[in-house]
Amino acid sequence: MSDELSPEELDALKRLPRERVPSAGLEERVVGSMRERGFIAPAGTRAARGRLVRLTSSRVAGLVAACIVLMVGAYTIGVRHGENPVLRGVV
Amino acid sequence: MGEPRESTRSDRELVDAVLRDRDETAFRELYRRHTPRLFALVARLLARGDDEAEDVVQEVWIHAFESLEHFQWNSSFATWLTGVGLNRVRDRIRRYGRSRETATDVLPEVGTPPDSPETRVDLERLIARLPDDQRMVLVLHDVEGMKHREIAAHLDIPEGTSKTLLFNARHRLRALMLRKGDRT
Fold first, then answer.
1. For A51, B1, B66, B97, which has the most beta carbons within 10 A of its beta carbon?
2. In terms of pTM, does the model score above 0.80?
3. How distant is the alpha carbon of residue A50 from its chain centre?
4. Surface-to-core class of residue B10, CB atoms within 10 Å of its CB (0-12 exposed, 13-18 middle, 19+ buried)
5. Does the beta-carbon distance from B123 to A10 stay under 8 Å?
6. Per-residue confidence in pLDDT tens, chain B, 184 aa
7. What single DSSP character describes residue B22?
8. Using the beta-carbon criterion (under 8 Å), do B20 and A50 form an inter-chain contact?
């Protein structure tokens, strides 16, 4: 088919460079953004390494689940104490 | 900072160092290892000039680390990063449509020394003039060497659509080449 690319043209496409170096400023911009978001430690603060716990969605879900379990547990204990005369007498 | 050093650390070791210790050196190593490839791909897919491509590359790194907990290491880090890059490019095209300057007017800048500078710049310029969806499939298939199955998965389109887009892209590119040949 005449309007299909020729093997030479397809080869030229394959030979296009697959790597390009962006401007030097980009690395600093990316590192700055990563630092702002807490993914990397502030410059020169090795001591701060690993202290910050990032709140990821799974961690938040875990915290919420733990809170719910605690609340339900406390409520259940409260109800059972209210119904049990022996325990009521003790308390 | 300083000059990039040769490293024997694997991507996984570097990623772990960033996640565990928030290690800036490890992150810079990852960045320098993967950004040239990512930048070339994003710039070619977007075809809107280097500034916008750099913005997208920045978004890719941030998004990658925000969603790293979902990465299971079933593929290489580079492949996964490419997937994140493709999503960001698609989002950008969807959100902003064609850029203020049309792709026709944007000449992608030249990268590393080419075999034949004129031919290559012409080819880059013609690819940039293709419609977004055709350009994406052509670049992924004919430049990056991806299979239609992979392209379909990345772009969330049926395989048949990927094949049709490639056919139309090649057809259009051929027409642009011929038109250019007539003018010279």
1. B66
2. no
3. 15
4. exposed
5. no
6. 444 555 789 999 999 999 999 999 999 999 999 999 999 999 999 999 999 999 999 999 999 999 988 899 999 999 999 999 999 999 999 888 764 444 444 444 444 444 566 677 789 999 999 999 999 999 999 999 999 999 999 999 999 999 999 999 999 999 998 887 666 5
7. -
8. yes
Q: CA B47, CA B109: separation in Å to the nearest integer?
A: 10
Distance from the first to the final alpha carbon of chain B: 48
| A17 in contact with chain B, both atoms CB, cutoff 8 A | yes
Does residue A27 sit at the B interface (CB-CB below 8 Å)? yes
Residue B125's identity, in one-letter code, is: R
In the structure encoding, which two tokens stand for residue B175, read together?
Answer: 């027409």
- CA-closest candidate to residue A52, choices A67, A32, A37: A37
| Cα distance between residue B30 and residue B24, in whole Å | 10
* A55 min Cα distance to partner chain B (Å): 10
ipTM confidence? 0.81
Chain A and chain B share a number of CB contacts under 8 A equal to 123
Residue of B nearest to A39 (CA): B22
How far apart CA B54 and CA B60 sit, in angstroms, is: 10
Length, in residues, of chain B = 184
Q: How far out from the chain centre does Cα A83 lie?
A: 45
Q: Is A59 on the interface with B (CB under 8 A)?
A: no
Angle value at C-alpha A69, between A68 and A71, nearest 5 degrees: 65
